[in-house]
């Protein structure tokens, strides 16, 4: 039997301040946040589930973890502690490139997704550690991470595990949480809905459960002879928001701001409201939009985030469902069913309870303009999938035909802009994520005579020699208006070349908090479908001076 929808109230995750107040003025602070195994109720009728959860204590740990609120220009230090047991609660695969501690334990390392911070604080996949820092990966340097928060406000950040080959299992278990950087002086004049009740984080994640409440993850691979457990994508049959399956939220007849994060392993969401009410998109994962853009459908890739305002006073219905229509895998998979096609419900209060003084201003914030002609370097980034001859099932994925452990080939000069031509030779859309950098798609062009191009690429792995210019003359697809801004995740459509302009880096790190972006162990970039990232669609990103 399936779970009844809309019986649990949408939780508000605990808030942790990433600054202290000294004589009324914000000052840097240091937090200790742990990872704990504990029980979490995903639904009224489902027995409590064993999860891995972030919290400032075992008792307060939640799925997702607490929302960290930082202030622009006020550095924050976090000591991430691993209090996890000796054994993982989910299956994992020893045949993908994976952290395997000699003495047991669950390797973890935390990445602030969207953060502009030193490499030593980036949560490098090999900087993992087990409980009590008993065992540490080869690139581990420090138990305490520095977050300068020097970047512009706006955008929706999140923190999550990034351990080598275990990211899909560690996030599925619950190691994720939201992170917001505010600048009250710059943002208050915008007049957007504010305060904890009206400015809310919505963390979406699909999960499957056994009847006893435990998390279900397939423990048999599609190619058991190659990878005994790894599957190309995890799809759950329940949709959770802030750790509840299909929750509901009572709202007043007024505007609300929602920061939507897709923390699923592999599922895209194409969100709409059942009565056609628009989302007023005000920002991406990394910035505000210059102007709000109203959309009725919001396609949110894995790890992508959008900052939106919904005005419930425009609703004539008392109840609005949030609906999902994204096929899985995206874009050519199955359509969602009656379960995964629903996300949550808003219940609108009958009367206007108080005046709504908020607004969606005509102008939001401006950032550095995208300037393709300034690019110091143009690179081809190619996405490949490899299949097992016998089963036809995918065995692994690579970027540029290279393994994650092969030496860095993307070595941008710190402070420069580059153009990356991202070529997707697979059948799936891969959400591309770069650490440290911010980027945006400026052009999306179809590849003609794709099969011929693919065959050449399989042979030569060289886009220029395979005549990419001759092939990239297909249909041009416009980048949606609400995605034409700085981002940290960009969707890369199959059979297309997506031209992205990348800035390494957007902030002047010298002022607020100096750090050397060229230091070891460097950064990474990868596909953010977690099952792809783990096997092995990830490459080093090494900045040079
Ligand atoms: Cu959201 Cu490399 O991570
Ligand atoms: Cu991918």
How would you describe what is shown here?
The mean pLDDT is 96. A hairpin with a 6-residue loop joins strand 25 and strand 26. The longest helix has 11 residues. It is globular and about 65 Å long. It is 6% helix and 36% strand. It folds into 3 domains: 169 residues, Immunoglobulin-like; 159 residues, Cupredoxins -  blue copper proteins (Immunoglobulin-like, Sandwich), CATH 2.60.40.420; 170 residues, Immunoglobulin-like. The strands form 7 sheets. Strands 12, 13, 14, 15, 17, 19, 20 and 22 form an 8-stranded mixed beta sheet that branches. A 6-stranded mixed beta sheet has the order 26-25-27-32-29-30, with no helix packed on it. A 5-stranded mixed beta sheet has the order 1-6-11-10-8. The protein is mostly beta strands and 545 residues long. It starts with 14 loop residues before the first strand and ends with a strand. It binds CU-O-CU linkage and copper (II) ion. Copper (II) ion (CU) binds next to loops. CU-O-CU linkage (C2O) binds next to strand 8 and strand 33.
């Amino acid at each position: 039997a399936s779970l009844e929808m809309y019986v649990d109230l949408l939780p508000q995750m605990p808030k942790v301040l990433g600054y202290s107040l000294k004589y009324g003025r914000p000052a840097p602070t240091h937090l200790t946040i742990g990872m704990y195994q504990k029980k979490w109720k995903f639904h009224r009728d489902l027995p409590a589930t064993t999860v891995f959860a972030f919290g400032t204590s075992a008792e307060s740990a939640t799925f997702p973890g607490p929302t960290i609120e930082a202030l622009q220009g006020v550095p924050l230090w976090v000591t991430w502690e691993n209090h996890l047991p000796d054994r993982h609660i989910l299956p994992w695969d020893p045949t993908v490139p994976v952290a395997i501690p000699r003495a047991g334990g669950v390797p973890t390392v935390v990445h602030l997704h969207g953060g502009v911070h030193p490499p030593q604080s980036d949560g490098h996949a090999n900087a993992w550690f087990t409980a009590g820092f008993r065992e540490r990966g080869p690139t581990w340097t420090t138990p305490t991470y520095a977050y300068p928060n020097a970047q512009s406000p706006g955008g929706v950040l999140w923190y999550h595990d990034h351990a080598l080959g275990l990211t899909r299992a560690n996030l599925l278990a619950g190691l994720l949480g939201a992170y917001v950087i505010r600048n009250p002086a710059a943002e208050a004049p915008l007049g957007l809905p504010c305060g904890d009740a009206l400015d809310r984080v919505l963390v979406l994640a699909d999960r499957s459960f056994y009847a006893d409440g435990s998390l279900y993850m397939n423990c048999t691979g599609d190619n058991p002879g190659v990878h005994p457990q790894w599957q190309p994508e995890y799809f759950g049959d329940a949709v959770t928001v802030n750790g509840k399956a299909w929750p509901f939220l009572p709202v007043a007849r007024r505007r609300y701001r929602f920061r939507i994060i897709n923390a699923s392993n592999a599922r895209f969401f194409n969100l709409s409201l059942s009565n056609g009410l628009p989302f007023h998109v005000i920002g991406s994962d990394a910035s505000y939009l210059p102007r709000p853009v109203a959309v009725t459908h919001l396609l949110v890739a894995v790890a992508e985030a959008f900052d939106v305002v919904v005005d419930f006073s425009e609703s004539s219905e008392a109840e609005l469902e949030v609906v999902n229509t994204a096929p899985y895998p995206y874009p050519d998979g199955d359509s969602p069913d009656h379960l995964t096609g629903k996300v949550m419900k808003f219940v609108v209060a009958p009367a206007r309870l108080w005046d709504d003084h908020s607004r969606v201003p005509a102008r939001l914030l401006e950032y550095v303009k995208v300037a393709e002609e300034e690019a110091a370097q143009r690179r081809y980034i190619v996405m490949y999938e490899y299949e097992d001859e016998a089963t036809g099932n995918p065995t692994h994925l690579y970027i540029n035909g290279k393994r994650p452990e092969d030496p860095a080939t993307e070595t941008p000069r710190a402070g420069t802009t580059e153009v990356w031509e991202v070529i997707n030779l697979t059948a799936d859309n891969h959400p591309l994520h770069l650490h440290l950098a911010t980027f945006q798609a400026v052009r999306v062009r179809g590849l003609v005579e794709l099969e011929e191009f693919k065959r050449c690429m399989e042979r030569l792995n060289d886009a220029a020699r395979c005549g990419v210019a001759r092939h990239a003359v297909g249909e041009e697809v416009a980048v949606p208006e609400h995605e034409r801004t700085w981002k940290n995740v960009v969707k890369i459509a199959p059979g297309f070349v997506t031209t992205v302009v990348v800035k390494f880096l957007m902030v002047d790190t010298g002022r607020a908090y100096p750090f050397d972006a060229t230091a070891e162990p460097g950064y990474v970039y990868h596909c953010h479908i977690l099952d792809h990232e783990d096997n092995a669609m990830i490459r080093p990103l090494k900045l040079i001076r």
